[in-house]
Give the backbone structure.
Amino acid sequence: MFATLSTAYPEFIHWTWAQFAPHYQDLNMCTLTADSVEAWLADWSQISKIVQETYARLHVATTLNTADAEAEKNYHAFLSEVYPQVETAEQELKQKLLSSGLEPAGFEIPLRNMRAEAVLFREANLPLLVENRKLGSQYNKISGAQLVPWEGQELTLQQMRPVAQNADRAVRERAWRLASDRWLADRVAINELWTKLVPLRRQIALNAGCADYREYRWQELLRFDYTPADCATFHAAIEAVVVPAATRIYAKARQRLGVDSLRPWDCDQDRDPLNFPTLHPFDNATELIDKSEKIFQHVDPQLGEYYTIMRREQLLDLDNRKGKAPGGYCTEYPIARRPFIFMNAVGIRGDVRTMLHESGHAFHVFETNHLPYIQQLQVPMEFAEVASMSMELLAAPYLQIKFGGFYTEKEAARDRIEHLERIILFWPYMATVDAFQQWAHTQPEGADPAACDAKWLELQRRFMPGMDWSGLEDAMMTGWHRKQHIHRSPFYYVEYGLAQLGAVQVWRNALKNQVASLANYRHALARGGTQSLPALFATAGARFAFDAATLREAVELIERVIEQLEA
């Protein structure tokens, strides 16, 4: 039965549960022994990979065009009619393996994960989890439809990003206010969505016997190596070490601009506060691909080859267009053993950074293709983001035109300074997002949009005091509306902060020996989900940490390199 399973996605992407069911029934009826378990796991992996690739491709279709009613219908049909049945069947197979007492080689971490998932599983939650995903899609639909008028055109908010970098402060302000007003126009709709999401998530947690959604989500995200208390320690370390460093960056920016206070339109993530002409690294997606390919060939020939495969097999959808979902991501097609990168490129320096970041995720997929079982591909997100954030730093020396990249030597120095400053500025924002989520999903008032506005305001003032929002309080307090992770991937954000600290350590090693650091990086990626989180960090040459001392070492390195680049 399993030997005849197709590896061509058009043949299974519209399967109903009736076509999946016999394979799960066959697996459930097998007798497990030490001699048969590896073949059984291989068959289980095969059908699970078909499920995951179907899910991935149907989801991708809804993001490529949020107005595609057929794509939305197919995705929701899969979520409603197939996925709950699959999750029940998968749970039965997990219980079967756990009950057998067998421990296949290389399966220690996957078995640990299965035990946690088995404890959390409740059949009553299956329709609620489907509804949670659908509400996440609704958030995408709201944000994907946002357009603003600019000089006779209707532009997406992403297409407004180059305007936000204009050297003319008045132009920047006008563009920023247009985008802000467009978000505020959806304030009621996003608030209504939130008042459905929070109670739904609470009910999911209660059904699973958890005190609150944070406890549920902690276990669902398989966070064995740290606690909410560790996150609070990290927040405090960021407040003590990083906020002063961020304040120094803001002070420098004020001096460069010659202004009394920094306003939100002065600090777009892609704008150079030195007021040099805006960097325009590429004109179209083809140029972005061409130059990225050359950069990766310099970073590591094998990584370059991986990127060439993605180009050849059309696994890159990079340009921004009307109706496309916002943001960028890399997903995996496990049957094809290929990644797929989605982004919204409009020719700004942030697009280059996104390309490097998502390619790090893509390389992770290629490096784990040797692992035999799908359960071994379940990489902790905290380390998955080390793969992507490290690539941003490891590729930085090759962004110059002389390596086939985007910038002159001076432009590359400017870009690296901006990138390093943004790392420092990111940690306080990450702390704001994480602290907000921890509050929203543990306090009774977390479902109240007005209380959320007040909490966001409090946290932003605590962690991001260097910005002047006077007269813009409505935009400031609704900052939680504009962070899609809060709405679509709850609690998935502290990973970025922890991973960034790991990535800076990988980069520190590369400054001493790039070849050795790359080797350790690739070796860690190849381990997939077969090691614990601290062990994966260690394999990559970093320490999994929350403390102020490790953070201070990272910040001092960043500030030292910025000084060298400025000189």
